[in-house]
Structure formats: C-alpha cells, structure tokens
Write a structure and sequence with these properties.
Elements (H helix, E strand, L loop, with lengths): L10 H8 L1 H5 L1 E6 L2 E3 L11 E5 L16 H32 L6 H10 L5 H10 L9 H5 L4 H10 L28 E3 L1 E2 L2 E2 L2 E2 L11 E5 L5 E5 L3 H9 L4 E6 L7 E10 L4 H10 L4 E10 L2 E10 L2 H12 L4 E6 L3
Parallel strand pairs: 4-10, 7-9
Antiparallel strand pairs: 1-2, 1-3, 5-6, 8-9, 8-10, 11-13, 11-14, 12-13
Helix pairs in contact: 3-5
C-alpha cells in the first residue's frame, strides 16, 4: 500500500498516518528491513513496517519526533488527557488533606497553597502533587496561617526531598567551627572524603560526576546536588537563590553511582552473550539486566554502578559496536 507524506516526515509520522492507535503504541519501525528509531526521517520509496507494543504510550519527547500536524495533534491530545487525569487525582489528594485537617478546601485556600509552592495555576499544582514533585504535610493549618515565608520554606524543602537529615559537610573550617562556611566567589568542589562525600546526591535526578549540576545548601548545611535540568532543582533555584552554589566535580575513583543504559537492536542468536561479554570487560557492578524481544527486535535496560559520565560514554561506544545493536543511550531521570 502506498502512503503519501510530506518531505521530512518521520517513522512516527507514518505510524500516526496509518492509525492513531498504531501511533500511540509505536516503539520503532523497520525501514527497508532495517530497524530505525521513531525519529528516523523517511525517504521517497522507503518500505516501512511499524513496530508496536501495548506497554508503549506517547511522551513529551515525541513532539520532537514528528513534523506533521496530524501526529502532533494526536500526541498533544494524549498528553493533555493524561495530565488532566493526573491533576484530578492530585486534586483528590489535596482534598483528603483538607478533610483530615477539618478545613474546607475553598478556592482561596487552594490558591494560597498553590502560590506558596510556586504555582500560579491550581491544575499545575495538582499535577505536581500526583507526580510526587510536591508533598503536602497532613497538617496544613500552619501553612495557611503563616504570614512569612519561614514555614513555607520548611515544607517546600520537605516536598523536594531535601529536608531530611543528611551527613554533615566536611570543610577545612570544621576544625574551628561546627558550621561550614561556603565561599560563593568560587565553585564548591564536589569531592570524595575519607568516609563518604562532601555532598548528597539528590534522589529526584541522581546526578553522577561529569553531569552539569549545582548545589543547594540544606538546613543542616549539607549540599544537595541536582542536575541543572532537574525540574525540582530548577524550582529550588527560582525560589531560594541565596542557597544555590555553583559546583565543580573532582576526580572520583572510589565512589560509585547508579546509571541506567537503554539498548535496542535486531534480535539474533548470541546477541545477549555479546552484550554480557562487553559489559564484563569494564569491570562494573551490574545491578539489573533486563532484555525483552518481540517481532525480531530487542530492547533492554542495564542498571549498573559507575564512577562518572566517562564510564558511561565508553560503555555506550563499546556496546554500539556489537553487530545488530542499533542504539545505546543513558536513561536520564
């Protein structure tokens, strides 16, 4: 069957051209019998076979993979519907909190609470609650009655997961003072210490040495390290600029950090053996290795402990050289 698409159309555009359900569940395609990603641009005369999976669903990144208005509209419709559903669930959660506090969830209270957590629209606030980006304490009376920002700061930090007790930062000033002093005129060096590190890795984005990061000074003066692209980190920067530190990584040889690689390709006998042998050559600790195959295509995720971004880059290059491996990339939170 012949299909006509505009110049520059991608495999994902083609899938949506066939049917909305096919587009929504598309995981890739075979073009002229070769496995290609969703973003692959098609050429005139290409033979295309769309690959789907029931577990697949559209993501925001898909908007970068399409050029046709039809595909973009379909993707946006799904994202809007999912966001609305999540926001509704978040709204129910906040109403439960109000009920426990014996308070009426009036528009005034809801708007005030949303504003305190940095949201101008209640729907965005509800969405963040359901996504886990914001956690509302059971007792919200203090927040609603507080006139200054102190209590709000406390709960925002709790919502961002930076209010828990963390290891104290070790600095040269410890010898004469119990409280670390941060020199903001120069980058804070993220380094290994004798029994740990002089910083704490943020659980929301899990950066590793080599990532572009910044530090957030917590109440106990520990430094929480976030990726610059981390949504929670960005919100912290906009609300608590006086607590932000520029940072620089030092060499890490002892500490290990969890990283996840995604690998896809064409399935064949011996492909798993080749992947395992390549990984073993790097002497890294594999936490989890999962590979699934369907319709002649495999997709896998590898959880491992590495020292820095360079380890990941070397691993990706080595794995990509294996015959029939089509793509290898790091999964970033």
């Amino acid at each position: 069957e012949l299909k006509t698409l505009p110049k520059g159309a991608t495999a994902l555009d083609f899938a949506y051209n066939l049917h909305t359900d096919i587009g929504d569940t598309c995981i890739g395609a075979k073009v002229n019998h070769h496995l290609v990603p969703l973003s692959h641009r098609l050429e005139s005369g290409d033979q295309v076979e769309v690959l789907t999976s029931k577990s697949q669903h559209p993501t925001v990144e898909w908007l970068n993979f399409v050029t046709t208005a039809k595909a973009r509209t379909k993707i946006e419709a799904v994202l809007k519907r999912e966001r609305k559903e999540l926001a509704k669930a978040g709204e129910e959660k906040i109403k439960e909190v109000f009920q426990k506090a014996s308070l009426e969830p009036t528009q005034s209270f809801l708007d005030k609470l949303a504003t305190y957590f940095g949201f101008s629209r209640r729907e965005d606030f509800y969405y963040a609650i359901e996504k886990g980006d914001v956690i509302i304490p059971d007792n919200i009376r203090k927040i609603l009655k507080e006139k200054n920002g102190n209590v709000i700061l406390k709960y925002v930090k709790k919502a961002f997961g930076v209010g828990k007790k963390k290891p104290r930062i070790l600095t040269p000033s410890d010898a004469s003072s119990d409280k670390p002093v941060f020199d903001k005129t120069k980058p804070y060096e993220l380094r290994e210490e004798a029994f740990g590190r002089n910083y704490v890795v943020a659980s929301c984005c899990k950066p590793i040495p080599g990532d572009e990061v910044f530090g957030f000074i917590n109440d106990d003066n520990s430094v929480i390290v976030h990726k610059r692209s981390c949504p929670i980190g960005i919100r912290l920067k906009s609300n608590f600029g006086d607590r932000i530190l520029s940072t620089v990584w030092s060499s890490h040889t002892s500490s290990s950090f969890e990283a996840i690689l995604q690998i896809t390709g064409i399935d064949e006998v011996g492909i798993l053996t080749g992947i395992a042998q390549t990984i073993s050559g790097f002497h890294v600790n594999i936490i989890r290795l999962l590979i699934e195959t369907k319709d002649g295509v495999f997709e896998g995720k590898i959880n491992m402990m590495v020292h820095d971004v360079e380890d990941i880059q070397k691993m990706c290059i080595a794995l990509s050289k294996i015959k029939n491996v089509q793509s290898v990339s790091r999964i970033v939170n």
